[in-house]
């Protein structure tokens, strides 16, 4: 390697490390999309040995690096076969939190679809209990799961400030996802479950699933119910060009929107005038065709317009990315400076669904990190 190449490699390495060290807020991460490949392979091997699946076929699918949008949803059906029993749900929830914490994510909203599975004796409630059990089982990281009445946020805030040498600390909150394949009544069950679990770390509702499946009218009663109950809602919007639905979602005016890829000029203008914060998923959108390339991703337009936004991973396992990598991609693709990246990460605190006490504590974390990173 010549000196110039070595210098470039060192600069890349330095920037990557800086993006890891940056405290980050993750607002759009699906539990089953964030599972480690090594865990999926281990689970697949186990089911292969039992003759439930053909391991070699599944292995190739898990390790494949490119994924179209329809392929993603076929894969989720496979992942759900591998992961949907109570013990495995507990395991993946634990690992996912550990992985985000290792990336210096200081606040994480994980979303997951509560599942009924009669064969496994699983109800939506027991599924969520298994998730929470996993969050509580995390050992190498201090997890703050409940509201400030369970463990004082001041305590966690001071721990978050402890720096790199001590145990990492992370706030975790849960969003319950309504899958677009569900009926109105199943969607309402999910919102009612969220109401029931508000004191256990559940903090909001998400609408997700295959965007070419289902009708907006099916979920609207449940989403409206959430709104009436004062539960924050985030909605996957415009992953495909469904004009009628994009319009309806914007009219519903949720607290946040995911993706916003296929909006036309009128919808784009409306989004900007409503100032709804957007969860930006660069790698996911480029891989699934929602954006033509990184360079042409709508992040640039929203960022330049000072529209509220937050960088997110969507499915870090499925798309082999991490939140640090998403910040790195923004730096290298759009030329943001470290100062601008820091601002971007810090601004995301405004869009968390947690209360003002948590926000205040997170602002302290950024204030402290500023001295170290800038
Ligand atoms: C829409 C997505 C998604 O809930 O089983 N999901 N929905 N668009 C996407 N973009 C690629 N990525 C994930 O996690 C997996 C579920 O999250 C939703 C799908 O409903 C998928 O089945 P959970 O933990």
TrEMBL record:
<keyword id="KW-0479">Metal-binding</keyword>
<keyword id="KW-0546">Nucleotide metabolism</keyword>
<keyword id="KW-0862">Zinc</keyword>
<comment type="similarity">
    <text>Belongs to the metallo-dependent hydrolases superfamily. Adenosine and AMP deaminases family.</text>
</comment>
<dbReference type="Pfam" id="PF00962">
    <property type="entry name" value="A_deaminase"/>
</dbReference>
<dbReference type="InterPro" id="IPR006330">
    <property type="entry name" value="Ado/ade_deaminase"/>
</dbReference>
<dbReference type="InterPro" id="IPR032466">
    <property type="entry name" value="Metal_Hydrolase"/>
</dbReference>
<protein>
    <submittedName>
        <fullName>Adenosine/AMP deaminase family protein</fullName>
    </submittedName>
</protein>
<feature type="domain" description="Adenosine deaminase">
    <location>
        <begin position="23"/>
        <end position="364"/>
    </location>
</feature>
<dbReference type="GO" id="GO:0009117">
    <property type="term" value="P:nucleotide metabolic process"/>
</dbReference>
<dbReference type="GO" id="GO:0046872">
    <property type="term" value="F:metal ion binding"/>
</dbReference>
<dbReference type="InterPro" id="IPR001365">
    <property type="entry name" value="A_deaminase_dom"/>
</dbReference>
<dbReference type="GO" id="GO:0019239">
    <property type="term" value="F:deaminase activity"/>
</dbReference>
<keyword id="KW-0378">Hydrolase</keyword>
